[in-house]
Amino acid sequence: MAGNRLSGRRRFLALGTAAFAGLAGCAGSGGSGSGSDAGSEGGSGTDSDSAGSTADSGSGSGSGSGSGAGSDSGSMASEGRVSVGVLLPFTGEYDWVGGNVLPVVEMLAEGINEAGGIDGRRLEVVQADTEATVDASVSAAQKLVNVDAVDFIVGPTSLTFTGVIDLIRENGVPVITPTAGTTELDSVGGEYIFRTVPSDSLGGRAISRAARNREFNTLSSYERMGLMVGNAPALQSFKAPISSSFEEFGGTLTTVLDYATGKSSYQSEVSKLLSSDPELVTLVGTPEDSAKILRAAFQAGYEGNWFVTQDQTNADFLELTDERVTDGILGLVEADSPAAVEAGRVEEFAADFEEYAGREPGIFAKNTFDAVNIGALAARAALAAAGELTRDGIAARIRPVATPDGETVTNYATGAEALDSGSEINYEGLVGPCDFDENGDISSPFAIMKASGGSWEQVATLPASEL
After folding, report:
1. Taking residues 144-148, what's their average pLDDT?
2. Least trusted range by pLDDT, from 47-56, 128-137, 184-193, 411-420
3. What pLDDT does 66 receive?
4. Do 365 and 260 share a domain, yes or no?
5. pLDDT at 15
6. Do 163 and 252 have their domain in common?
7. Where is this region: Disordered (predicted)?
8. Is residue 64 part of a domain?
9. Across residues 428-450, what is the average pLDDT?
10. How many domains, the chain?
11. Residue 104 falls within a domain, yes or no?
């Protein structure tokens, strides 16, 4: 089995084989896709030892966002290694997020290490479990920052970002999150915080744009929409972008209804919703709650349609209820980069990930591919510039390694070769150009999906220019 995975990793790095061969001798980086595997596998399915990975639950009852020790960001990097902390939920209801992200990080780290590391330094992966709660995320982040002394972090999710943002800033820790779309980050990133997933502000506009234009949903240019949003902060992030943009695009909101998550029944909420006579309802919630709400509306005789967000646009959600309930509903995921698709890079990534992890890549996998490559290239650029590795040095080079003015590269191997030759680089990923704006955000096209026969099919692509 190990031999098979090795051959897959070598094929995965094929675009940069020549570059890696040179680097090895100079020891002195899917909501994407259809999200079909989201929530189905909590484990990583990887050989973490070979990637230099260590697991740490990071759980505990600590609260607040104190910075603790190690506030000198320039002194935290350990010689002989580059360490990336994976700060995500690995237990609880959202364990699937960590399960989707970690194996991508480990696969890339293993390939980089087999080819000589980052300028001779081993890329180590340190895992920390946020349990999808603020208290546990603070404890986990404090250990990554102050004990493990990681050089940069992949994660966290929207569920826990508010609990750790002060710790990140005070300690100058570079963060590239492939999972946090929360609008709370719209104006706070860009110095230490970046993301390879679009903001919910953009996702909300994409839902409204697609709902109002039959060209993008193939069914109708809906005029009257109801909006149901779970009361968890990560779900509420979608409410303002959807409600404001639907009216901006000429639609009418019949009602905006918050509901408590985790209830056994939503009959009363559905009754109130349907009394406003919507022809479409956009539902923001967990897959479990959403399935209960759809069933209740079906039983109440609702004949209109539904639009769901990235968290529900996956196979597991469709398996939670009958096809009669879900057929025809609309969903949203990030669209693959057209350039990456045309070059075969998306297909190559999917095949090699499946060989490595034993399953298809799920939501956030491609976003993670880009986050790790950018972080590793920023670390290599920092070492080339200063001869030493600091958190500030990495953070200062995250945006430059993805600037449009540089030589286009699509993986760590080709990017490292270009950096070694003295060139500026422009990393372009599986999710598209990673041209970070002043707040560390990217733009992205979206794929509009429709449920049919128990699976999702793409019916349109919504370009970022339409938003």
Report:
1. 98
2. 47-56
3. 35
4. no
5. 39
6. no
7. 28-76
8. no
9. 94
10. 2
11. yes
CATH of the domain at 290: 3.40.50.2300
Q: How far apart are CA 419 and CA 413, in angstroms?
A: 10
Q: Is residue 5 part of a domain?
A: no
pLDDT in tens, 155-197: 999 999 989 999 999 999 999 999 999 999 998 899 999 999 9
3-state SS string for the chain: CHHHHHHHHHHHCHHHHHHHHHHHCCCCCCCECCCCCCCCCCCCCCCHHHHCEEEECCCCCCCCCCCCCCCCHHHCCCCCEEEEEEEECCCCCCHHHHHHHHHHHHHHHHHHHHCCCECCEEEEEEEEECCCCHHHHHHHHHHHHHHCCCCEEECCCCCCHHHHHHHHHHCCCCEEECCCCCHHHCCCCCCCEEECCCCHHHHHHHHHHHHHCHHHHCCCCCCEEEEEEECCHHHHCCHHHHHHHHHHCCCEEEEEEEECCCCCCCHHHHHHHHCCCCCEEEEECCHHHHHHHHHHHHHCCCCCEEEECCCCCCHHHHHCCCHHHHCCCEEEEECCCHHHHHCCHHHHHHHHHHHHHCCCCCCCHHHHHHHHHHHHHHHHHHHHHHCCCCHHHHHHHHCCCECCCCEEECCHHHHHHHHHCCCCEEEECCCCECCCCCCCCCCCCEEEEEEECCEEEEEEEECHHHC
**What pLDDT, on a 0 to 100 scale, did the predictor assign at position 466?**
87
Nearest to 212 by CA among 150, 280, 141, 261: 280
Q: 187 with 264, same domain?
A: no
In a domain, residue 223? The reply is yes
Confidence of residue 55 (pLDDT cuts 50, 70, 90): low
Question: Do residues 381 and 415 share a domain?
Answer: yes
Shared domain for 460 and 320, answered yes or no, is: yes
Domain range for residue 239? 201-334+445-466
Q: Is the pLDDT of residue 291 over 80?
A: yes
Q: What is the pLDDT of residues 104-142, one digit of tens each?
A: 999 999 999 999 999 999 999 999 999 999 999 999 999
The answer to whether residues 144 and 88 belong to one domain is: yes
Claim to verify: residue 85 and residue 172 sit in the same structural domain: yes
Tens of pLDDT, residues 346-366: 999 999 999 999 999 998 999
